[in-house]
């Protein structure tokens, strides 16, 4: 038995050495493995900061500078009124054009505004239409609590200002329309200005109240036909 003891000690020594080597290998592997995730995690953090650079695309909020298109309102050009006619010629902008449904046998009123965004005054000198042999311009004069119409030959459009043809104020009259104008029709009008020139627009015939009831301005009918008849009589 004593002759075998050296062999046992030799095998035990080799076993211990192998065990120590395996333990060292495991420790080294664990150490390397724990280092890799740390190094791997660093690129994403750097990369994510680059995505903050994508906040520079938030610089596309500079397209919010397209709100500068809202600056078109700064030019003074009025927006169109739904259900009415609009036209532009040079620095003049015609808006809100309409004809109230005809309530008189002989006349029909026309209303619109002309905004001048230029620095030169202009003048509306005439209006023509296939719907009537003559279109006249009128202003409303109040005397002793009653209103009457007075014919004028032209309508001034001030520089950087607005001329308004509205109920109870300046307006145009289609004299003796070729037929009675009713709601839903379209009437072609040609306006002539001293400087801007000529512009043609197609104007809708609306109900008695115009685009809205607010346009009545306390009048019984938007055409003012009765006071017009008195003025012509």
Question: What does it look like?
Answer:
The termini are far apart. Strands 1, 2, 3, 4, 5, 6, 7, 8, 9, 10 and 11 form an 11-stranded mixed β-sheet that branches. The protein is built from 2 helices and 11 strands, in the order αβββββββββββα. It is 24% helix and 33% strand. The chain is α+β, with helices and mostly antiparallel strands and 233 residues long. The chain has 2 domains: 1-52; 85-232, Sandwich (Immunoglobulin-like). It holds the Pfam family PCuAC. Residues 33-84 are annotated as: Disordered. This is Copper chaperone PCu(A)C. Residues 1-30 form the signal peptide. It comes from Frankia umida.
Show the helix and strand layout.
Blueprint: H1 5-53, E1 85-89, E2 92-100, E3 107-116, E4 122-128, E5 134-143, E6 146-152, E7 155-157, E8 162-165, E9 171-175, E10 186-193, E11 197-206, H2 225-232
Parallel strand pairs: 2-11
Antiparallel strand pairs: 1-2, 2-3, 3-8, 3-9, 4-7, 4-10, 5-6, 5-9, 10-11
Protein name: Copper chaperone PCu(A)C
Signal peptide: 1-30
Pfam family, one: PCuAC
Question: Can I get a quick summary?
Answer:
With 233 residues, the protein is of the alpha+beta class. The protein is built from 2 helices and 11 strands.
Give structural attributes:
233 residues, alpha+beta, Immunoglobulin-like, 2 domains, 11-stranded mixed sheet, 2 helices
């Amino acid at each position: 038995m004593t002759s075998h003891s050296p062999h046992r000690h030799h095998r035990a020594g080799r076993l211990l050495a192998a065990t120590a080597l395996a333990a060292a290998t495991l420790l080294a592997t664990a150490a390397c493995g724990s280092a890799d995730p740390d190094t791997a995690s660093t690129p994403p953090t750097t990369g994510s900061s680059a995505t903050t650079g994508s906040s520079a695309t938030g610089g596309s909020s500079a397209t919010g500078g397209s709100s500068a298109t809202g600056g078109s309102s700064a030019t003074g050009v009025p927006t169109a009124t739904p259900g009415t006619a609009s036209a532009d010629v040079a620095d003049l902008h015609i808006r809100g054009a309409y004809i109230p449904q005809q309530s008189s046998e002989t006349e029909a009123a026309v209303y619109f505004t002309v905004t001048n965004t230029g620095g030169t005054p202009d003048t509306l000198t005439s209006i023509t239409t296939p719907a009537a042999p003559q279109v006249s311009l009128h202003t409303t004069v109040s005397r002793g609590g009653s209103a009457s119409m007075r014919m004028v030959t032209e309508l001034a459009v001030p520089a950087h200002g607005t001329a308004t043809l509205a109920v109870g104020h300046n307006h145009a009259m289609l004299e003796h329309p070729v037929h009675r104008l009713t709601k839903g029709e379209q009437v072609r009008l040609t306006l002539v200005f001293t400087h801007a020139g000529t512009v043609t627009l197609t104007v809708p015939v609306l109900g008695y109240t115009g685009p809205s009831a607010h346009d009545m301005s306390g009048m019984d009918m938007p055409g003012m036909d009765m006071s017009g008849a008195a003025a012509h009589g």
